[in-house]
Structure formats: C-alpha cells, structure tokens
What does this fold into?
Amino acid sequence: NAGVTQTPKFQVLKTGQSMTLQCAQDMNHNSMYWYRQDPGMGLRLIYYSASEGTTDKGEVPNGYNVSRLNKREFSLRLESAAPSQTSVYFCASSWDRGPNEQFFGPGTRLTVL
Amino acid sequence: QKEVEQDPGPLSVPEGAIVSLNCTYSNSAFQYFMWYRQYSRKGPELLMYTYSSGNKEDGRFTAQVDKSSKYISLFIRDSQPSDSATYLCAMRGYGGSQGNLIFGKGTKLSVKP
It folds into this structure.
C-alpha cells in the first residue's frame, strides 16, 4: 500500500497563476483533509471532506477550493496564487471524522513569487 | 491566546538523556490528545494517542495528560539520534468543528551522539 500520495512534490508559481494539488489514498478511508504548514504557525486545516460528496471549511479556507473527486482522491485548487500561499501543503486521510488516526502524505512545497 | 501552545525549541540533548516535551491548551472541550513525529521534509506520523487524563506508555515513550491543568507531556527515555525530529502535539474534541485536529507549532529535537 502506498498510503497517501501527493503530486507534485515541488512547485513554483508566479502571483496570479493557478494550480491544483492532487492527493490520493489507498486505505479506503472515508475522510480526507488538506493542511498547510508554515514556520512558526504549525499545521492549520484548510478544508476537509468527511465523506465522498461532502466538503467543509477548516481554519484557513480563503483563497482555496477543493474537490472530492471520488472516495480515493481529494484535490486542492489555488485559483489566483498569492505570495502568502507559499507553504508546505499536506494531505491526510482517516477512517472517518471520529477520533481516529490521521495518516499524512509527504507534502507539496509551494513557492509563489 | 492560541488554543494550543508549544515551545518551538530547538531542544538539543545528548544521547541517552530523558526528554520532556510539553503543550498547554485552553479549550476544555478537547478530549483526545496526540503526539505526532515529523522528520525533516516528511509528513507527520502518529506516535502516541491518549484519551482524557492519565498516562500511556509505549516502549521508550510516555504520554501524560493532565486535563485539570490543561497540560500534556511526552517523555522520551534513553533518547537516540534517530529520535531527532520535530514533535507536534495535537488535540481535538468530538463532533462538528470540535472534531478538527488543532496542532501545536512543534518542538524541534536534536539528539547528539
């Protein structure tokens, strides 16, 4: 099992460009999450999907959109990238929204110039 | 005041030392407490998981929760160079937005041979 995979691993964008970060899990988990990690700020939840077909905002959703494409895949889209979105993005999944372990992907390092 | 406070360190100890990592929190609704370990340029992985107050031991690691003081700790005995990583505390309540994991900023630990 690959667990949680993310693409791309690295990306450099110019201000105003758009891009989609991809995430897939092969653990048959119902819930998936997108976090960003910034120095001095810790991990912060952007959006989550409790189950296929549902999405909800987390702590820092502004400037992002998400799509739960199917049970395996959850994508994060930046429509018009800003330097403030320079960060490391982690996707995670868990069995459900209960108190279960969240499994994290390896991350995407995004720089917006 | 942030919901979860964690000293970012860095913390440097000699091999074999006992390490104590701590977090404080302000939200009385938190019931589930976790410690994640994150190696450089990797995603976080769950290390310890406790529910409510008390101690939990797993090999060289002991997690301690004191809900009356809103204080959690992770102790590492006989620390090894392979323990060098960033340790993130995380906690959550149950249901709705209280089900979101709230992370501390992480403490960077270096164990010197």
About this structure: Chain A touches chain B at residues 4, 40-45, 48, 58-59, 90, 92, 97-99, 101-107 (CB under 8 Å). The mean pLDDT of chain A is 95.
